Amino acid sequence: MNSDRIKPKAKGLILVRLLKFFIIPLFFVFGISTVYCINYTWDNGGAGNNWSTGANWNPDAPAGGPGGGDTATITFGVVNLDANKIVDALTISTTGSLTAAAARDLFVNGHVTLSGTGTFSSNIRLTMTASVTAPATLNSTMILGNFRINTGGPTVQLGNALDLVGYINVMSGTFDVTGNNYQIDLEGHWTVAGAAVFNSRSGRVVFDGGNNQTLTSGGTDANHDFNDITISKTGNTLTLAEAIDINDDLAISSGTFDASAQTITIGDDWTKTGGTFTSGNGLVNFNGGGNQWLRSGGTGAGNDFYRLRKSNAATLYLTATALQVTNQLIIDAGCTIDLNGQNLDLDPGTLNNNGTLRLRGGETVQIQFMDTNSGWVYYDGAGGPYAGLAAGNNYYSLRFNGAGQWNLNANVDVNRDITLSNGTLSAGIHQITLGDDWLNNGGTFNPGTGTVLFDGTASPQDVTSNANSFYNFTVNAGASSVVLQDACDVNGNLTITSGTLAAGANSINIAGDWTVAAAAAFDSGTGTVIFDGALAQALNSGGTDANHDFTHITVNKAAGTLTLGAAIDINGNLSISAGTFATAGNQINIAGNWSNADTFTAGAGTVIFDGAAAQTVDPGPSAFNNL
Predict the structure, then answer these.
(1) pLDDT of 451-487, one tens digit each?
(2) Ramachandran bin of 438, using left for φ above 0, alpha for ψ from -120 to 50, beta for the remaining angles
């Protein structure tokens, strides 16, 4: 046969076949394995538009069209994938399209490029294996159907944003959105195998299907986590089949997101502006190391959480809408949940607080089971006056840190500390019971006619009043003690029923009665007790032993009489600068100086000067009975 009579396309075919069957195997012999055998380009030179028609390709392909070891390029026309196929690379560009009348599988061992104005049929399931080219790139501006990655280890990376009307299934290998952080829009299911990897980087996955979708993450480690997730479904439900970890944001704008019984871990913001969130029995864990924001969408079904936790560090702020948790609200140590002016409904529900719950004071807060065994509650509002304490009247530790004013409307019980750092706390007629320290380091305490009761029994209770008065001051500390850190002013009564009140070097001003039980103790230190009430006062020391004596006593009353209810022992000085001091027949032992500038009513009492050093006596205008 005369070679001049062979058509150019046929000559090309003969050359290609020589390469395929004789020359290319030599590459494998010498260790060169990544090589494309034949590059086929669609020319529609045969009958119909089927892929399997060899004459439709340039050069002419064998029956069945391009296959394993080949590359396929389509730049125009509509090619019908009439059977399942495998190629080493696929390019569809310009006006080319790939369609299928029935469900088909197309396996690609290398790069896939889908661009231009054509389409890629949703009947075609695309599977990338990266067995020839790794990493293999999927660069698609076309909407795909179902997409699988099954490389056995190598990476498939995106070269453009990806939009699918079907599902994604990473069966093996790595799926990487690359440093360009390409977005994935998905209408079908999401599945990543436990041994596979999804490298989310800073990309976003958008679930926007109108049908039911399932999210199977494969795990919550760095190989399976997400960066951002957006749920903007046109209908039906996205359901979690496994726990998920989201490093950045979760947004719900439409559709239903069903957590089932799974855990959602989120590193930044939760924003719900529409749609439905079904919490099931799942946990949502806000574990960001920086501040996070939660917009729940409101309260009630479709917005509420079952269990919610703030962990790791920093603060979770509520914004725009109230929060409802129906089972458990958990705050880890070092973490804060700030209501930020939004209401909290935790009824039914339990607060487990090892960190801080912060609120302003004007919120509506319902907590069925308050944590009184750990954690702080901070009030930091700048307004008011707030009527009562919004989070209830039972706390572990309580702090006022805002410029506002809080007016108690009931008795308050605090098992550990109260700190007044700013603002005003007004007790009114109510009692505050405290298990540990009272620290006023910048706030104002208006005692009203209420009582502060110190009843801690485990550790000494420190009291720093910062020049703010108490009304009634009661110590009922068992075997423990209350220790003054600065001067103390009591406008009402001071009562020690059990435990010890230790004054140190600090003075105590008292306008009401002084009562110490016989089994209790007053450790006077080097301080002075100043009786300065304008009405009658009673002094019931409880005894004259070392647990009941005084160092110095000053009577400085504008009116009225201080009357002894029992004998007293003074290790230092007694000074009557104003008002009347009456013994009512009780004995006074004094080791220091006696100075009287007003009235001493000796009655039938005896004054014994028993100091070991020199003492001075200035009786003033009053006489002694027995001396």
Answers:
(1) 999 999 878 999 999 999 999 999 999 999 999 999 9
(2) beta
